[in-house]
Amino acid sequence: MSIQSKIDCPDCGTPIHFESTLLLAGKKFSCPNPDCHTSISLAPSEVSTVSEAFGQFEKIRSTCIQQAEKTE
Question: Which domain holds residue 30?
Answer without folding.
Answer: 4-71
